[in-house]
Write a structure and sequence with these properties.
34% strand, alpha+beta, 8-stranded mixed sheet, 36 strands
Length: 642
């Protein structure tokens, strides 16, 4: 998922292209669009405004996970410029870098707590190879080499010799379920699927595992798969699709905790009984449950609640369910528990790019285990957003996080930042570009248009299929409301977004050409017909719910009319584009076609076409080059009106 500008634009955008990025790179006739990497000049720590490079050089911990014995914490960090794997003692002390390659895509602890598995792809192509490395970093082996297939890691079996994963290796299209035997160095196909099936948690002391089937961007079916008999038994298959996630088996194997909005509007914490097939709702609030982990040998639960994007942490005994809040700074949380009383929480927020806290589950006490390096930035200068809600023209209440500059004369110009997904949420996380722009006197609205998650099932589905353009219109309605409020210069605004947000920029700039003074689109769709036709069937399962079945002539006609490429000739404002040539989700040709069309009309276009990136800009030098040019573009076209 997560919002993206630290890693730049990793989203759950559901287009998986089958095009050849190598061919796309060869035919592009404009060599000046390939960014020129310049030496990094950051100025001094006392310079104001703070230089963009300092925000990008700030380093924190991401995705911290504690091992089973609660002796070590592993985390990823971009200290070296790309995401690498690090490990440190939970008692504190020096962290040790374990990986040194092209960057990792994920990692998990082995059940023995002494080794980790991690994935690595090639310049963002998302074709992972799997490696096993010990905590010393001195013993490392290739478990599964990369191939043309896409893989999704599942879970280690408790005995440690096997792990589950999904892969498209059978036909290059459908995600089947496999079990890899590490002793035999061999994979076994245990379920042949159609579309997308993904393994979750193994049932304790059995050969069974929970499996989810994608039935929408925010919906799954849940099954129990016996890997020996190959029998798949449905557990949840609701008539109205619902979300199911964060599965945690009780140590007895007689049931599991999970988060779902089945037969309800909001996500709540639940427990499923295997014998009676009944479900108990454990925690239900007027906000959405966000994460849950089982701790202390199954005696304690740690969970978080998402209220307007900000998360609050709670712990409770599983026997009594008497929750108590654990105090942490504002932001978003990621949880990990050991089998002991220790847990770790990764906090990402407006003033931290990733802090690790050690939590004593029984006492509820928290301890800062690892603080980030802010590259000389005073955190008191960073802005925490204001939550705003406002009506669209049809009465739907929209929400956003508004960052306002301080101590400027007049009304600041505005950037409306649109997240990817579309099933995602603008959250109060570390946002280098946002903080930089605010320091330069430009306000930023991180908007949650209809279709965003975090506000209930109904809101998340208000942009489905023929309602697609309603969310585009929300951007214009946001400008109208902000103009009435008078806090910002809504007549001097830019639309900016990545992945699905990039599509939204393409769409709003052509559909409402008088609304925005500039647009910035990253890895966005131009032609929905082509994008949906070329999508992986594993993702078409969700596409059918979100966008409609593109094999149906009705939807072909709808998107033939309602794709940005059909309104590109209406765009009159300057545009900024960025795309990675290796993008496997949304081909670089989508931005190519928009740029060519605009240049034919003599519309000013800045284009960063990156030959060594994919759907995300992962390398530090490329991120610095992109943000510098983007910041210059926005400063040029959004001059504050005093």
């Amino acid at each position: 998922m997560m919002k993206i500008y630290v890693a730049v634009l990793l989203t759950n955008f559901t287009v998986l292209s089958l095009c050849s990025s190598a061919q796309a790179q060869q035919v592009w006739p404009y060599p000046d669009d390939v960014p020129k990497i310049q030496p990094l000049k950051i100025g001094t720590a006392s310079d104001r405004p703070i230089d963009i490079s300092r925000f990008l050089l700030a380093r924190g911990a991401l995705s911290a996970q504690v091992n089973v014995q609660a002796s070590h914490v592993a985390f990823s960090s971009r200290v070296t410029g790309v995401s690498q794997l690090w490990v440190m003692p939970i008692q504190g002390g020096q962290a040790r870098q374990l990986t040194y390659g092209n960057g990792i895509t994920f990692f998990r602890w082995h059940p023995d707590g002494q080794r980790l598995i991690y994935g690595a792809d090639n310049d963002g192509d998302e074709r992972d190879a799997y490696y096993l490395i010990d905590v010393s970093g001195k013993q490392e082996s290739l478990v599964m080499p990369s191939s043309d297939a896409y893989r999704s890691f599942g879970d280690f079996h408790s005995e440690g010799n096997r792990f589950s994963y999904s892969s498209t290796e059978r036909n290059g299209r459908d995600f089947d379920i496999y079990v890899f035997d590490m002793q035999r160095n061999k994979s076994e196909l245990v379920y042949q699927s159609e579309y997308g099936f993904f393994p979750r948690q193994w049932r304790p002391n059995t050969d069974q595992m929970l499996v989810t089937e994608v039935v929408g961007e925010d919906g799954e079916n849940v099954y129990l798969l016996d890997t020996k008999t190959k029998q798949m038994v449905p557990i949840f298959k609701p008539k109205v699709s619902a979300a199911f996630s964060h599965f945690n088996w009780h140590k007895s194997g007689n049931g599991f905790f999970f988060i779902s909005n089945d037969d309800s509007e909001l996500l709540s914490l639940r427990f499923y009984h295997m014998d009676s097939k009944n479900t108990d709702i454990i925690v239900k609030t007027d906000a959405e449950l966000d994460d849950v982990v089982l701790c202390d040998g199954g005696e304690q639960l740690l969970y978080s609640i998402n209220d307007n994007g900000f998360e609050t942490l709670y712990s409770t005994k599983t026997s009594t369910f008497s929750p108590k809040q654990i105090q942490l700074p504002q932001g978003t949380l990621q949880l990990s528990c050991s089998k002991e009383k220790d847990a770790v929480v990764t906090l990402n927020g407006p003033k931290t790019p990733g802090s690790i806290y050690r939590i004593d589950i029984k006492s509820g006490q928290s301890q800062l285990l690892r603080e980030p390096d802010l590259a000389g930035i005073d955190p008191q200068l960073l802005q925490t957003p204001e939550v705003i809600t406002f009506p669209a023209r049809d009465g739907v209440m929209l929400q956003g996080l508004l960052y306002l500059p301080k101590d400027i004369k007049g009304k600041p110009p505005l950037v409306i930042d649109i997240h990817g997904g579309p099933s995602a949420q603008a959250r109060p996380t570390w946002m280098p570009l946002t903080q930089y722009l605010v320091g330069k006197g430009i306000a930023v609205l991180d908007i949650n248009v209809r279709g965003s998650t975090g506000f209930g099932k109904t809101y998340a589905r208000l942009d489905n299929q023929e309602k697609r353009l309603d969310s585009v219109r929300d951007l214009v309605d946001a400008l109208a409301w902000l103009k009435k409020q008078g806090k910002v210069d809504a007549d001097n605004a830019a639309a900016m977004g990545g992945s699905y947000g990039g599509y939204m920029v393409n769409a709003v700039m052509g559909t409402y050409p008088d609304a925005f003074a500039a647009g910035a689109s990253f890895v966005g769709v131009a032609d929905w017909v082509k994008a949906l036709e070329n999508a992986s069937p594993a993702l078409k399962a969700s596409d059918r719910v979100e966008y409609g079945d593109i094999s149906d002539p009705v939807w072909q006609e709808f998107y033939a009319v309602n794709s940005p490429i059909n309104t590109v000739n209406n765009i009159r404002a300057p545009m900024f584009y960025q795309h990675g040539v290796n993008d496997p989700r949304d081909p670089v040709t989508e931005s190519d076609i928009m740029v060519n069309a605009l240049r034919e009309q003599n519309i000013p276009v800045t284009y960063l076409r990156m030959p060594d990136e994919g759907h995300a800009v992962s390398k530090l030098t490329n991120r610095v080059a992109m943000y510098r040019q983007l910041a210059h573009f926005l400063e040029t076209h959004l001059q504050a009106k005093q």
